[in-house]
Each structure stands twice: as structure tokens, then as C-alpha cells.
């Protein structure tokens, strides 16, 4: 089975970084409905609202300055992966990109697990889930690019002609069969 190449991973990582920034504009938290007493119906209703409800507080408003940190880490990861295309900087840039991608996933996970302050934003919405999924794609691409071997240019080998055949004279000729 073939894997996608380094350049394709970098393009997917750029798309994932754009997806993270776009997900910050989507609703991350919303107002929960009052409990009905039917636990299973409340749970499935919450899952449905998390995936489909268009109303809620956007990520930029809900998580405050952490949103800027998430967007900055995602953009820095994408930039470092583009810099990793240069053979001289590949090892350094891809290693740092892996760390910034891991920081992006960690920061989004902390924001999702910690939740926002206040009762009016206590139910998860699809923006946070999209950001988490895009950050995992970003991390996977960064890890793949960092794991590729470095490409060093070696000078091409020059052609050296073979030595001339020996000249045989008289009785010193090779045996004939």
C-alpha cells in the first residue's frame, strides 16, 4: 500500500490548518435543553445538537485568547511544513512542525475538556469537533513529514571509460579454443 508523498502531506496540512481557523468561526458551545428525565433521549438529543445545531457561541468568542493561540499554532505548523521543503532546513523545520501540531491538538483538547465558563455555553457544538478532527489531521501530516528521510543532493557520478584492451603480439597471444 502506498502512502501519500511529502508534498501531498504538506498540502493536506495547509488545508487542515485552514480548517482549524474556519472551525473557530463555527459554534463551539451552545445552550443545553432542560433535562426531560429520559436519560437516553437526553443523551442522543445532545449528540444530535452537537452535530447539527447551527446556533451557539463561536470558538473565537467562547474560548477567547486561546482561539488566537490555536490559530497561530496551526498557521505556524503549516508555515514550518512549507519551509521543510528546503533540503537544508527539512530536519529542523519538520521537527518543530511536529511539536507545534502536537501543541495545537493539546490546546484544542484542553479547551474542549475544560469547557467554557457559564451555563449558557455548556453543551458542545460541531465547531469544536471539527477543530479537533482538523488538528488530528494536521498532527498526522506533520508526523509523516518529520519521519521522511532527508534528501541530500549528491553530485552525479562522472563517466570514466574502461581501460583499453591489452595488445597481444606473437606467442603471447591468448589461447584459442
At a glance:
The chain is mainly alpha-helical and 177 residues long.
How would you describe what is shown here?
The chain contains 6 helices and 3 strands, in the order αβαβαααβα. The protein is mainly alpha-helical and 177 residues long. The protein has one domain (6-150). It has a 3-stranded antiparallel sheet. The protein starts with 5 loop residues before the first helix and ends in a 30-residue tail after the last helix. 29% of the residues are buried.
Could you outline the blueprint of secondary structure elements for this entry?
Elements: H1 6-24, E1 27-30, H2 39-52, E2 57-58, H3 59-63, H4 65-83, H5 90-114, E3 123-124, H6 126-147
Antiparallel strand pairs: 1-2, 1-3
Amino acid at each position: 500500500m502506498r502512502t501519500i508523498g511529502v508534498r501531498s502531506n504538506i498540502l493536506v496540512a495547509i488545508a487542515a490548518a485552514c480548517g482549524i481557523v474556519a472551525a473557530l468561526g463555527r459554534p463551539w458551545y451552545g445552550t443545553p435543553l432542560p433535562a426531560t428525565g429520559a436519560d437516553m433521549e437526553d443523551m442522543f438529543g445532545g449528540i444530535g445538537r452537537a452535530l447539527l445545531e447551527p446556533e451557539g457561541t463561536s470558538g473565537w468568542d467562547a474560548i477567547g485568547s486561546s482561539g488566537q493561540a490555536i490559530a497561530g499554532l496551526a498557521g505556524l505548523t503549516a508555515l514550518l511544513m512549507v519551509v521543510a521543503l528546503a533540503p537544508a532546513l527539512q530536519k529542523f523545520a519538520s521537527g518543530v512542525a511536529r511539536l507545534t501540531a502536537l501543541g495545537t491538538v493539546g490546546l484544542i483538547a484542553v479547551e474542549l475538556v475544560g469547557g467554557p465558563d457559564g451555563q449558557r455555553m455548556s453543551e458542545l457544538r460541531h465547531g469544536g469537533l471539527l477543530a479537533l478532527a482538523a488538528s488530528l489531521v494536521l498532527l498526522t501530516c506533520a508526523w509523516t513529514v518529520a519521519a521522511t528521510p532527508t534528501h541530500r543532493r549528491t553530485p552525479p557520478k562522472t563517466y570514466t571509460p574502461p581501460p583499453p584492451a591489452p595488445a597481444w603480439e606473437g606467442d603471447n597471444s591468448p589461447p584459442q579454443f
